[in-house]
Amino acid sequence: MDFLHILDQLADGELDQYEVSPEDAFEFQQALRNYGRKQNIVGTAVRGGKIIYRGSES
To answer: Do 41 and 56 touch, CB atoms closer than 8 A?
Structure first.
């Protein structure tokens, strides 16, 4: 999966949110750590181990 494209969409406001399943969480976190604009993305943990990422409004 192309997580960098998803991160770009979140940071640019093209995508409202993206839900990451527990199975993809580690790989997504690696992409996020290396992403240059990670300060523009906020994640919220929800029940079941899923994480919902959204673009930061600030």
So the answer is: yes
Q: In what order do the strands lie in the sheet with 41-45?
A: 17-20, 51-55, 41-45
By CB atoms closer than 10 A (0-12, 13-18, 19+), residue 10 is buried
- H-run or E-run covering 30: helix 25-33
Q: Quote the Cα angle for 27-53-57, to 5°.
A: 140
Q: What is the pTM of this model?
A: 0.87
Q: Which of 46, 42, 44, 45 is nearest to 54 (CA)?
A: 42
What is the pLDDT confidence band of residue 56, given thresholds at 50, 70 and 90? confident
